[in-house]
């Protein structure tokens, strides 16, 4: 069975006992989470989310990229969220490479320059959270009324640690 | 209690019984999911994912944005995934507005032009999945060896429906 076939099989079971078909579009808990795509993070289990509770934006690193800001503007302006929680995590892949490393690998494999792509790696975990919070706060479209806080998720303990 | 305090409380319970501290960084099932930030979607429950199984990239619409491609390149090139599953969903917020609508709202509220932001809304759900698959396949950094398929998640039934 391919992984896609496995997903369809698992989804049959999920749908068979699904009873949340009447949830509204706006998140019930008025919050958006911005975190990493890392496979070891399950935001719902780790934070106690039920379907319908929160927007979850994920990318490599949990970075406040232009696209994350696009998503958060939609979340806040059209769907009423007022809190953003930025969560980076220990042992993140983004700590393990530089733009130069990855660009060189891509050039070698695809014979095409990736020099115009910033892959947004970082060297300091707490600093990356602070930087991303600052980026969000500096967006002209994210007003001061939006509460923004930052955390590091420890993939070894399952614990969420505040970044001040 | 604020929603952040609720998350910390829920996380205490999660961490107290956490026993998955030794998972490796690369996703065990070698798959990356690209889906919408919508609060009603819980990819782990809906697809049968455990911590460590899959990269999960999420943004407004589950679009194949430049940032999603950045994340997928890292997923594939540095962390060994070979399958991408694109999942859009019924009743998506992206079906309910146009760029012009949102830009006008932002201009009115913040007195700053958002004309250079494409919010990536769409009018046809199946078509948006097909477009995003095509965008990924056309990336010079996503080779033909990566398997890409598309689905629509029905938020009313919990069911995953293939898009061909």
TrEMBL record, chains A, B:
SMART domains: Pro_CA. Its EC number is 4.2.1.1. Binds 1 zinc ion per subunit. Its cofactor is Zn(2+). GO terms for molecular function: carbonate dehydratase activity; zinc ion binding. It comes from the Bacteria. InterPro entries: Carbonic_anhydrase (IPR001765), Carbonic_anhydrase_sf (IPR036874). It holds the Pfam family Pro_CA. Keywords: Metal-binding, Zinc. It catalyses: hydrogencarbonate + H(+) = CO2 + H2O. Zn(2+) binds at residues 36, 38, 89, 92. Belongs to the beta-class carbonic anhydrase family. This is carbonic anhydrase. It comes from Reticulibacter mediterranei.
